[in-house]
Amino acid sequence: MISLKKITRKGKAIFLAYDQGLEHGPVDFNDKNVDPLYVLDIAKKGRYTGIVFQKGIAEKYKAEIKKSKVPLIVKLNGKTSLVKGDPISEELCSVREAINLGASAVGYTIYLGSMYESKMFEDFEDIQKDAHKHGLPVIVWMYPRGKSIKGKSKTKLMAYATRVALELGADIVKIQPYGKLKDLSWARKSAGRVKVVAAGGSKKDEKALLKQIKEYMKAGFIGMAIGRNVWQAKDPMDITKKLKRVIWR
Predict the structure, then answer these.
(1) Environment class of residue 89 by beta-carbon count within 10 Å: exposed (0-12), middle (13-18) or buried (19+)?
(2) Of the residues 12, 55, 174, 195, which is catalytic?
(3) Active-site residue (options: 48, 61, 111, 143)
(4) Over the stretch 195-222, which tens digit does the pLDDT of each residue have?
(5) CA 20 to 30 Å from 99, out of 32, 52, 131, 186?
(6) For the CA atoms of the chain, what is the radius of gyration?
């Protein structure tokens, strides 16, 4: 069994996600948070259990990441928002490269239901085997996408996503949560021994965000992989404290 101790604390997790530059472009950034060092400083001061970077940032800021002692999670694939149609996110970084960059875990996105699903499954199989061979946990971003899921229940797709993560051999699955407590609990149960973290998503009202996280924790999630709701905030450390209070209560 792969240990999650390096990227969790007392079995819980809060990852600071900063892979949005590739996925969305710089539209999410301002003059402060466009700088990876600003975000890394938040992760360090907030004692996040992991920070998510694509390989380019992990490579260019390797010295500062190492000095921060924040566990590095290297995202191994990605895509831009420019190409339309059924999505595919192909491998951009190998497990070996991630290890050389000092990764404590690796992440990979699968668009469940996309016509390219089988290609992403195939890549994930190789990544999972390679990462586990070197003792690295694998986090899968499992997002239902594509024409084939149109009209299907979001809550049922959420549980399907967590189950696929279990079947494929992931250690942690990151999902976009939907529905009520019973739906979230079923998604968590469907994951079996795979740990579940919730995506933070786009910027939300703070009160609504904290209320949502309370529901996720009640359902048995281990925490959050959150980005914009932290590093877009006027006071990132204040929201960090509030998030951690909910997760580790």
Answers:
(1) buried
(2) 174
(3) 143
(4) 999 999 988 999 999 999 999 999 999 9
(5) 32
(6) 17
